[in-house]
Each structure stands twice: as structure tokens, then as C-alpha cells.
Amino acid sequence: MSRYGLLAAFLFLFSCLISGQHKEPFNIVDKPLRIEIPVQSDKETHRIIPCGKAGMILFYKSVEVTTDFSTLWYFTYYDRNLQKIWVKSAPILSSLEYKDIDIRGDTLYLCFEADKKNRNRDVNFQILHIALPSGSFVLNNGKIPDQGVILSFEVVGRKAFIGLNNEEEKSSLLLMDLPTGQTNIIPLMPEDKSALLHCSASPDGTNLTLLVSKILTKRTAELYLCKFRSDGTKEFEVKISTNTLTNEFTNITEISPSESETLIIGSYSANPGTKKATEEESTGLVTVSFVSVVQKSIEYYNFLDLKNIKQLLSEKDVLSLRKKSIKKSRADQEYSLDFSLLLHQIIPWKGQLIVAAEAYHPQYHTESFTDYDFYGRPYTNTYSVFDGYRFTGIILAAFDKDGKMVWDNAMSIKNLLSFNLEPKINLYLTGNEIVLTYLSEGKIACRIIRESETVEKTTFSEMELNSTNDKLLNETRSRMVHWYEDYFLCYGYQEIRDISKGGNDKRLVYFCNKVKFDR
Prior knowledge:
Blueprint: E1 3-6, E2 34-38, E3 47-50, E4 56-65, E5 70-78, E6 84-93, E7 96-104, E8 107-114, E9 125-131, E10 136-142, E11 149-156, E12 159-165, E13 172-177, E14 183-187, E15 194-201, E16 207-215, E17 221-229, E18 234-239, E19 248-255, E20 261-269, E21 281-282, E22 284-291, E23 294-302, H1 315-327, E24 339-343, E25 347-349, E26 352-372, E27 378-399, E28 405-418, E29 426-430, E30 433-440, E31 443-450, E32 453-462, E33 470-484, E34 487-498, E35 506-518
Antiparallel strand pairs: 1-35, 2-35, 3-4, 4-5, 5-6, 7-8, 8-9, 9-10, 11-12, 12-13, 13-14, 15-16, 16-17, 17-18, 19-20, 20-22, 21-24, 22-23, 24-26, 25-26, 26-27, 27-28, 29-30, 30-31, 31-32, 33-34, 34-35
């Protein structure tokens, strides 16, 4: 059986050993190793950055403003036992907000970007370097041209690679030399409208792989695979053949199994013209393989053809959709589930390439109120309120280096509602098994699979609080992420009541728990 142990102590260390067989998937020893920070609202900007064995960073935007129109952001560095090492602040322009992070060795690179109304300023993005464990800070200033919006951010060696899109549909690359702060802007398709979909740098930083959409009309586009050298020189640009007039890529990522081979994995929509412009629903998964500049293959995998899709749908629903597809007179219209998806980064594992896609949909509720017209007659106003994104399941698929599917699996997600569109499920690879975990409503869900086989069904365990007298009332913006080895971090906002004090003794905190997987 799988075991999760919550390590013990608040702001001090306990040595814990997990042993014995229990029905519960979590073995709690003493008190949880946990941090609690009092907050006024769950709208505050606290964030956690796992830094592997080096520890973790907790940071937030304060209300302290400096004389140079900057706001102090506070960073707290903790070791692996959640012991506080240092607290430091960095002045970030008040018009900027946190955008993305890249971690290289013991150095963190945080990117801050201006909001829409402040993009015309002389400095509209900053890169903050934090060296661990010393805590030395270095700040780079830069300007993104033409109302650009940052799509991707990556640092390799002394260079930052920033992928940009803008409202005029002109995508570009911004290269910054970090020691000097000098920048170079490279238009991706100067003569055409375009949108950057994906950008990644090689491990040595000598070249960049890009996936760019050349926009032909409001409803049609062509997809291109591009390679650039780190100095901005384009090596090649080749059109990707979809082998169909209807299928359109909705999510994209890529991996290079070797210097000469590139494998693109993503999702596709079979009937994009029938959807609204704001929708990006996906029919299935797609792979495209290249050898140098030559496209070798393209493969489409409809979700309803996956072996384990019944983990997300009942067999009756699957059969019903397939019967509908048989009745269709037009062969080019595929039956489909049309999921809205979040794709994880590709994970190389045991000669396979694993992709995970989380399915979600926006959730609303209706509210009504009574108002009165000019003559005093009552009437009812009804409106929809956005509750967040409801995450419903995760689909996993493994491919060989040529893009052929080897196996698939799936897991349903329960009670997970979030305002943030970011992956919620952890894939922890151990031995020949994959552990799927997520945090929701103070409980940790755990499922173990071995390729297409389910080894252990999903179990739920309560996450310990500081005291047995504490009762969890509400939890928001919570996440669970892998930290190092068998350890994970669970964090977010919790409203807690101390039942021993009676009355309405509640507190709102930003929390962080250290969790260990033991099998």
C-alpha cells in the first residue's frame, strides 16, 4: 500500500520514521512540519518556490513603496526542515507583477512583467537573480517593444530567452545578455502575422526550438517548426503538414530525443470552425516527428479511442458517443469529447516520453436580486457569477521517440476548483510505477499506476494541522508540488477554527506542509 507521512513540527525539526501497516494512506507522526503565516485575505501574493535539496523560497509583494516608484517584495529562504535561513527584500517597479521563474542550479531567475496599461514605459520588465544559499540579489531592467506580452521565459548560461506575442499578431524573440543587460529583438515572421506557441532552449543554450503559427485569416493558420541560434540567426523554418483540412493544434510542447530529431506532442481539435474564438477544446492528442528539416510522421489519437478513457467517462457514455459518430454522414467529422486541457511538460522515462493533460471547464452559478422600475413595480435581475475552473480529470499517454503511443491511463479528479489555470496533478516516477497526487479541501489524493495498469486506486487522507483542536473551515488556492527525493510541499490559504476556545475563534493563514511519500 502507498503511505504518505506528514513530517513533524512547526518551525523546528523532528526526526520521523514511517513504519507499520495502516488502513489510512497517511501515517502522522507527532505534529506536522508546517509553517503558518497570518494573512488578511486569500487575495494576497504569497508564493512558494521549491528549490530541490537547497530548500525553498517563500515570497510575496508587500505594501512598502520606495522613493523610486518601486515596491518591496520579501523573500524568505527555508532549508529542507523548514528552518528559516534569511529574509531579504528586493525593490521591483510597482507597475510590474510576477510572471514566471526559471531555476538553474543554485540560482533563481524571476521575471516580472508590466500590466497592459504600463507596457509603454521605458522599463516594462525586470529579471531578478537570487543566488542560494547566500541570498545575493541582482536585478536586470528591460523593455519589451510594441505592447508585447511574455509567452515564455528561460535562462541558459548568461542569456535570457523571452518569447513574445502582441496584439498586432507579430511574434518575436527577445534575447538578453544578463551580465551587460543588452537586448536583441528578433521578429519571427517579419512579413506575416504570427503567434508564438512554444519556445525552448537547448540544454547548452546554443539554439532555440520554436513552434510558430502563421496567421492566414481569422480562422486559418499554418504551423511552423523553427530553429534559431542563440545569437538570433535562423537555422531553418519548415511548415508542419497536418494531413487534414479540419484538425487544428490546440496545445503544443516539444522534445528533441537527439540533435537531429525533434518530436512535437500536443492536442488537437477536429472541428475548430464550430467553436467560439475563446474556446480551445481538444479532440485528442497528436504527435509530429522530424528528422532534421524533414517531417517523418504525424499521428492523431482521439481521446475516445484510448484504452483507459473510461476512468473519466462511464462506458455507457463512451458507447453513446461512438454510436453518434457512426450515424454521421460526413466522414471528416470525428466524434470527440472536446476537453479543455492543460498540458504538462513532457517527461522522458525508461525510453518513453510521457505527456499528461488535465481536463477542466469554467464553472458558474446564478444569482438573482429584486429591483424596482420607475413605477415601483418589482422585477428580477439574474446574472452569472464565475466560481473558477473545475478540474475533472487527467489523461496520461506514453510515446516512443517516433511519436507512436505505447500506453495510456487516466484518473478522475474530485472537488478541485481553482481560479488559476496551472497544472494541479503531480507525476512522481518511482521504480516502475507512477504516483499521481493532488491536494484539495485539506486532503491529499494518491493513485499509483504502472503504465496502463492501476496498481492502487485513488485514496484520500486528511492533512494534519498544527493542533488536534484545529478544524479546517475553508481552503483556497492550494497546491501540492514535488520538492526533492520522496518529499512534497503542500501550500495555500486556509481558514482554521480552534474548537477548544469556543465561540468564533478563527484565523486565516498561508500555510506550507512538508509531506513524505513512503512505500
